[in-house]
Hints:
Elements: H1 7-72, H2 75-86, H3 92-105, E1 115-121, E2 128-131, H4 145-150, E3 155-162, E4 167-177, E5 183-191, H5 193-201, E6 211-216, H6 241-246, E7 252-257, E8 263-271, E9 276-283, H7 284-287, H8 289-335, H9 350-404, E10 406-412, E11 418-420, H10 422-428, H11 439-445, H12 451-462, E12 470-475, E13 481-492, E14 498-507, H13 509-536, H14 541-552, E15 560-567, E16 570-578, E17 593-594, H15 599-607, E18 611-613, E19 633-641, E20 644-653, H16 662-754, H17 761-790, E21 798-800, H18 802-812, H19 814-817, E22 822-826, E23 832-834, H20 836-853, E24 860-869, E25 872-879, H21 911-921, E26 926-930, E27 936-941, H22 946-952
Parallel strand pairs: 22-24
Antiparallel strand pairs: 1-2, 1-5, 3-4, 4-5, 6-9, 7-8, 8-9, 10-11, 10-14, 12-13, 13-14, 15-16, 15-20, 16-17, 18-19, 19-20, 21-23, 24-25, 25-27, 26-27
Helix pairs in contact: 1-8, 1-9, 2-3, 8-9, 13-16, 14-16, 16-17, 17-21, 18-20, 20-21
Amino acid sequence: MKLRLSIIPKLTLVFVLFAATLVASFGVMVYVNVRSALQNATVSGLLSTALEKQTAMNAWVEERQINVAALAAMPHLIDEAATLVSAEPGSEEARRARDHLVTDFMPYVQPQGVFLEILALDPVTGKVLVSTDPAEEGKFKENLPFFSNGRNGLYVQNVYYSIALQRPAMTASAPIRTDDGRLLAVLAARIDLEEMNAIISRHTGLHHSDEAFLVNTSNLFVTQPRLIEDPAVLQRGVHTEAVNRCLERSSGVTSAPDYRGVSALIVYRWLPERELCLIVKIDQAEALAPANALGGTILAVSGLILIIASALAYWLARGITRPIRALQEGVARFGQGEFDTRLPETSSDELGQLAREFNRMTASLAEKDEQLRNHAVQLEQMVEERTASLREKEHILSEAQRIAHIGSWQADLGTGKVDWSNEMYRIYDVSPQTFVPAQDSLITLIHPEDREMMGGWITAAIQGEKRGAVEVRVVIRDGSVRIIRGDGEILFDEAGKPIRALGTAQDITERKRAEIAEREQRILAESLRDTALIFNSSMDFEGLLDRILENIERVIPYQTANVTIVENGVTHIARQRNLWTLNMEEQPQDYAMPLDRLQTFKEMAKSLQPLVIPDTANDPRWSSVPGHDWIRSYVGVPIYTGDRILGFLNVGHEMPGFYTAQHPDRLQTFSNQAAIALENARLYEQAQSELKERKLAESEIRRLNFKLEQRVADRTADLEAANKELEAFSYSVSHDLRAPLRAIDGFSRILLEKHTKSLDPEGIRYFDLVRDNARYMGQLVDDLLAFSRLGRQALTKEKVSPLAIVSRILEELRAEYDGRQVKFKIGELRECQADPLLLKQVFVNLLSNALKFTRTREAASIEVGCEKVNGETVYFVKDNGAGFDMRYVDKLFGVFQRLHRADEYEGTGVGLAIVQRIVHRHGGRVWAEAEIDKGAAFSFTMARSKYDERKYS
């Protein structure tokens, strides 16, 4: 069945369809452009945030590396580490070195420092020698990366779970080496991850759902996400699409669900130096909320416009058709015989009837004309309202484009007319009053090198070929360059002819600059790392100068460069390199000039800072050396270690203002590496020279040792012969002298027994004196033999207990102090390595003397003990006896030397000489201190052994 409509519905439907198409096209275009602009702006912001956090984290890690390297290079710390390594474990010297190292470490440990803990490890076993946490000392870290890598150079172990700290940690390490390169220890410092967490989690407060966090290669959180309340670091895994892509060692942008399952805009970046993934994101709903709100507003306004358009269309259709219906009805009534509408009486035929109908129609049309004028006024008012509404929407769109740096344009390909949004004029830096947008005028704004590409892109787009977005450079009025990303679409009619073009243009200059800066920074870091490896691999001072020149161009452009060396306050060019010839010589000219004669060098030597001269022709500091008068731009940096100037790196260019602010910083970093390498090379050459001299000295020492050994052998033979003679003498004394003494004593005793009656008292007394002196002579011979045998008796050292020996001696000497008031005080007597029989003889002689010289005291006091003095054990025997005059202490330990009369105290004067001989044979010392009538103290030491040091240190 065919649908038949009257003219009113037809006119209404056509008008409504036209209005709906126009409103829908405009609303969709506005919504899509605004949504795309907001998304691009959000992604750009996330990218900037990711780059800023990556740069901040790298700077933070590098700062901690520098702290550890500086600490490991401290001279006094190296000295203490050398002392700790060389000292016997557990000795007093080792303990002092360990305490000094802990004192040196503490300023760098929290809360006043930047580290959680600092350790020094044995470079071979990985044992913790020193730690600011005493519980860590003695543990072994040989299987940890920071130990194995820290032995070779500066290293930072990325985030791992520390069992010792029971939490995530990062550890920086560096070798502690002596000046000659010998590895003493490995210095390790635990880094506080709260600082890294603060850097990554720093929140601007502009959004509710934006956050950033790090993920390791095990898909575990390394920093605490802001939107998770429970602890998640190394405790919770994340397997989102963005994290999985990032852990494939790639970087990019995606729109996908986050770890909460919420759709988000995510920027992910792989950090190769840390083996971590950086995630920066924001909920998509929050990011695109302004666009969604704008879409709702567009829908509401579009619906209202369609309703108004429908009512207006229907009303206009009825107004237009009403006269026709009236005419039709009038004609119909006339045809039906309604004579009240009949024609004028002048004509009754069909023409007259038509004239009357025409008259009625003209009257009706006059009335309708008045109605149409009223309708026109109403329509104009409605159009003005609609125009105001459209202007408001256009303002919102313009603001959105301005915020996102996105402009829109459209072109009528039939008329060639091009319409630009306000942001287009701002992007291209032109005025709407003076610039007429068109293809030809647009090409004039494009950089000359990109015009051909842009023209080809426009031509291909008009021909229907889809090439995607294009990036071109635009030269604005001040001469600077902007990078524009353009995209567009061609609309075709039913015949395939292009009729209209729509598109957008976005200013991506800042994003491109950030990408270029990041790329240049990465290239610079790689170059500096490579040059550091090259420098460290060379110990040839002259060859190192060539390598320095070969690698300067990797960090700074130049036309000429040289290395100037300072020796004894005089500068001379050691190496020179020219990248092209302009009356220049490759080899440096042979000249020398005092350092203070060149203002540039003098200023750098004083400030230890780079010097930049943008235009040498207008700078009084510039003093050109021969052959360099053509240089207009100059950068120089000092090569120094500590505060000692080694030389200068100098680069030049013929173009004034060629060097930017970043060039001197790069060259100074390169110079610092070169300074370390040059100093190491110079020290290496000195070490080689010293080594050569040492080898010559060792050869001379070996020659002298050979002669000495020969002399020792000769002397040993002489001593053996003397010992044999001494043994013969001892045998003679033992047998030949004892017999006459026994005869004198025996015959004197017989005379006294058989002839006492014939002798007067004086004679008897003389015979008693003869017998006493004979016995005394025998005792002297016995003591002398005992003393001589001590020099030949072999030592049999073993671990002995002096306390047990003293206890046995006191029992053996009990007969000498029975009946006397003697107080013995036996203190601690540490075990030692000694010959037990000889040590017993020492204590026997000292205790016998103490008992003998306290005989005149009513209450005798004898003290035996030991004490620790300067790392060695000192044994002593003290008494409150007669004492002696310290003026004669040098005679005390001599053979037959006595400080008291024989009638006061018996003895031969050999006992203390025997004590001294025994102590000296054990490698110890013996001495005495006394005061007349106030007692004496005899002290001695035994040679220290490793056993004693381990037990008593």
